[in-house]
Design goal:
10 strands; 4-stranded antiparallel beta sheet; 7% strand; 4 domains; Multidrug efflux transporter AcrB transmembrane fold; alpha+beta; 880 residues
Length: 880
């Protein structure tokens, strides 16, 4: 039927094929690039929903980092340029909170309280001595050192938080454009998801444009060596080019973009789709009749396409959106290549072919070249099985330890600018993927705020985590500047007073909501390695879930802060409340009574009487001495006594613990912990009052990691089952399907072994290989078994049937495998490392699966002579 259609309507088929190609080509322009890692997971995923919801509440959850390197950061020209860049970023639609060395919040003690303002602000100093003093101040503060300025003072960073719901790639491109226009002589590095996406998108676009012609050229060379005639080259190439245009055009119709995975589709279709044309042309040069060719080859070609489609459609089981789309559009590409190969190629052959001795001579030379393989298989079948079994056993031992990896740093070649930028961000600023904790509770409650601070200080003890920050830190800094105590006040009204000093600061929008019942804790994570990210995320999650109403929490905080300050091996249990001498209390009270803050002006004699009464706890006497203001005097005296006791005790305990001089930022933290040693019995942590949920890009990465592994095994299992059923249908035998699938299982296992041997991680691209190896590799088995059936059915004995099959279909199998392998080796020229690995592994897999199909499979058949082979001999109805 198909042959008759082609003979009658060859010109119509050719015209329609070209017309459809032009039509689909019109939509290619709609295909863009999508590299946002958050788009991998479906919007319905609870982790993604949480991530997006929190991003909306706090002005976004991804940040762009523009890092500046200079030996003179603290100079007027550089600081002026930093301010200019930051002001420009603020004007970009979708950019929320920004922060730089110029605008970062700073608290200073002033005569009548504290001043909260930008560190530098509008007026940038010009004098060298002022700038030198500023540099010394900034590098001495933990708030700035390692977060906004590097420890060595050579790097600084401008942060721009991207609002939820805006196009991160578009904003990233705008930031880069502005920076390139205004940076002058500054050396700039980019990091953070929005900016990294722009580089990945450029690389993906560049790779597609560069690799497509390289793949075509390599496949043309292989086809030229294999067929040694123009039609054997141009027809398979034309069919896969048409199929690629159809597929990408359909992507454009549905407005789907290329991703880190789906950008493989053009290269894949050119390499894989040529198989159907190769087998049709190879058989045609045997038959020299299009009707016989279609009769002999149509079924195995359709089956081969079906198994390849099955391998791609098995990715529909994945929860990762780009992988599902890759499966769908790759399957569409296979169908397109199949239709074109069965319709367009036979039509052209029918209209153009002329018989002659050249074709016969070419086939003779090809058979002569491949004949030694058939002789080896027949003579040494036992050894093929032994060697294959040994390799299978060895490689299967390596497979369970394959490393899984969702590591954006490893996407880029060593030495590339984007890789260097990400490393600078990790090493000097703690990374661009902050861990975030969403907090819901009364953020004016001391026990809630102390619970948050407890978690923060624990996070700081974890590897790769730095600079945890929340509203609690700002409140403690404000309290320190007002009252010389770096602690959360123990009373609500005092906390509310501290909020008053912070009102109007932009930074509050990314820390707390207006109602003060929702907040965000953020900490930098300075690693891109999956295992290290997972370690930190799991530890934080476990710690949050294990929180209790802990009463001696301050002991843990003291121990952690001592270690943070570099003081180790301290026995915190030995810390005791010291005795406060009376002279110290007397001195404190007398200092108050002599100050302008005294509630009552007293003579020296009355002051002495107040001091004496206070020592004896005779509070009524103090009230009587104070007269009408006695209540105020008594209240102040009690406060003074408490402050003196605390101040003296903290100082004494601190000196006992710390034997070295520490910077102010480290000292105040330890003194704050010692304050709670004295007051801790009055307040305990209250995790029951607060809800804490972990989110952020690290959590997304771990989710992807787990989905990668589950997607691998789900798609591989589905592919094996469906391919096995197709083999049962083709061979009408479970036994035959079992024998036929052995070479593929061997290939898949060998692939895992090679990945482990060469430490190739399982990433977005390499996870596809197992299912592809099953679907694409089984094509060779199908073509081999189909030809073997035909040779046996016409009366050949098993040995001669195997020999004939290897020397005919085996040739097409090897040409096909080498064209696929060489096509995928073009990916070695890719700028994304996962694509390079993918190319090497697929090339190796195709060669192994093709050689297995023409060596291991016939060796098994010859050695065990399965019953299904005998049934073929007796099947008189087999079409040959």
């Amino acid at each position: 039927m198909l042959a008759n259609l082609i003979k009658k309507r060859a010109w119509v088929v050719i015209t329609l094929t070209i017309a459809l190609t032009v039509f689909f080509g019109l939509f290619i322009k709609n295909v863009g690039v999508e590299s946002d890692v958050t788009s991998f997971l479906p919007p319905s995923d609870p982790i993604v929903q949480q991530f997006n919801k929190i991003g909306k509440k706090f002005g976004g959850n991804t940040i762009a980092m523009v890092m500046i390197e200079s030996d003179s950061i603290f100079s007027f020209p550089v600081l002026f340029k930093i301010r200019e860049l930051e002001e420009s970023y603020k004007k970009i639609e979708g950019v929320g909170f920004t922060q730089s060395l110029v605008s970062i919040i700073n608290e200073r003690k002033v005569e009548d309280g504290i001043e909260v303002s930008p560190l530098i602000g509008e007026k940038i100093p010009r004098k060298k001595e002022v700038l030198d003093s500023l540099k010394q101040y900034v590098l001495s503060k933990d708030l700035y050192n390692g977060s906004i300025i590097s420890n060595d003072g050579r790097y600084t960073v401008i942060f721009a938080r991207i609002k939820e719901g805006y196009d991160r790639n578009k904003i990233g491109l705008e930031i880069r454009k502005i920076t390139d226009q205004k940076k002058g002589n500054l050396k700039i590095y980019y990091s953070g998801l929005p900016l990294t996406m722009t580089f990945i998108n450029e690389i993906i676009t560049g790779d597609v444009k560069k690799l497509l012609p390289i793949t075509l050229l390599l496949v043309i060379i292989v086809l030229g060596f294999g067929f040694r005639r123009p039609a054997g080259v141009m027809l398979p190439i034309s069919s896969v080019l048409f199929a690629t245009i159809w597929t990408v055009g359909i992507m454009g119709i549905f407005h789907r973009n290329f991703s880190i995975v789906s950008n493989l589709i053009p290269v894949l279709l050119i390499s894989v789709g040529s198989a159907y044309g190769i087998h049709i042309i190879n058989r045609f040069y045997e038959d020299h009749d299009i009707g016989n060719t279609i009769k002999h080859i149509a079924l195995p070609v359709v089956l081969a396409a079906l198994t390849t489609m099955v391998s791609f459609l098995s990715f529909l089981s994945s929860n990762l959106i780009p992988i599902r789309e890759f499966g769908i559009f790759s399957a569409i590409g296979v169908v397109s290549a199949l239709i074109i190969s069965l319709m367009f190629i036979p039509s052209v052959l029918y209209l153009t072919h002329r018989k002659g001795r050249r074709e016969e001579k070419s086939i003779h030379l090809s058979r002569k070249a491949i004949a030694p393989i058939s002789k080896l298989v027949i003579s040494f079948k036992r050894y093929f099985i032994i060697v294959g079994g040994a390799l299978f056993a060895i490689t299967i031992l390596f497979s369970p330890t394959i490393k899984r990896s969702v590591n954006i740093l490893e996407y880029f070649k060593p030495g590339s600018m984007i890789r260097k930028s990400i490393k600078i961000g990790d090493e000097h600023f703690g990374g661009a993927s902050p861990i975030m904790l969403y907090v819901k509770g009364d953020l004016t409650d001391p026990s809630v705020l102390n619970t948050i601070e407890y978690i923060e200080k624990y996070m700081e003890t974890l590897p790769f985590v730095s600079h945890p920050q929340s509203i609690g830190d700002l409140l403690m800094e404000t309290n320190y500047n007002l009252n010389n105590l770096y602690v959360i006040p123990e009373k609500k009204n005092k906390i509310q007073n501290l909020y008053f000093f912070l009102e109007g600061q932009d930074i509050l929008s990314m820390m707390i909501n207006d109602e003060r019942n929702e907040g965000l804790v953020q900490a930098n994570l300075g690693t891109e390695k999956t295992g290290e990210i997972e370690l930190v995320v799991n530890k934080v999650e476990k710690f949050i879930k294990g929180l209790k109403n802990k009463k001696d929490w301050y002991r843990d905080e003291l121990l952690w802060d001592l270690k943070y300050a570099g003081i180790k091996e301290v026995d915190v249990s030995m810390v005791k409340t010291p005795y406060v001498p009376e002279d110290v209390i007397k001195e404190g009270i007398m200092k108050y009574l002599n100050s302008e803050d005294a509630a009552v002006v007293l003579s020296n004699n009355l002051k002495k009487r107040v001091v004496y009464a206070a020592i004896k706890n005779n509070f009524q006497e103090i009230k009587r001495i104070g007269g009408k203001d006695g209540e105020y005097l008594l209240k102040d005296i009690k406060t003074i006594i408490e402050d003196v006791n605390i101040s003296y005790s903290i100082k004494t305990m601190y000196n006992a613990l710390v034997k070295v001089n520490l910077p102010e930022d480290k000292r105040k933290r330890i003194e704050g912990d010692l304050y709670w040693f004295l007051k801790g019995k009055d307040i305990s942590l209250s995790p029951s009052k607060v809800s804490i949920v972990q989110t952020g890009m690290p959590r997304i990465h771990i989710r992807l990691d787990k989905k990668l592994l589950s997607s691998l095994f789900e798609s591989m299992t589905i592919a094996i089952i469906l391919v096995f059923l197709l083999l049962v249908w083709q061979l009408k035998s479970f036994q035959g399907a079992f024998f036929s699938i052995i070479p593929i299982l061997f290939t898949v296992t060998l692939n895992f072994g090679i990945m482990e041997l060469f430490r190739i991680p399982l990433d977005d691209a390499t996870m596809l290989i197992s299912s592809l190896a099953i679907g694409m590799g089984i094509d060779y088995v199908i073509h081999f078994t189909n030809r073997l059936k035909q040779e046996i059915a016409i009366g050949r004995d098993l040995e001669s049937a195997v020999s004939e099959t290897i020397e005919t279909s085996g040739l097409a199998i090897l040409i096909n495998a080498f064209s696929v392998a060489v096509g995928f080796l073009a990916l070695l020229g890719a700028n994304l490392v996962p694509l390079q690995r993918f190319g090497i592994l697929v090339a190796g897999t195709m060669l192994v699966s093709s050689l297995s199909a023409i060596t291991m499979l016939p060796a098994l058949i010859l050695r065990f002579r399965p019953a299904y082979i005998e049934k073929i001999k007796n099947n008189k109805n087999l079409e040959v």
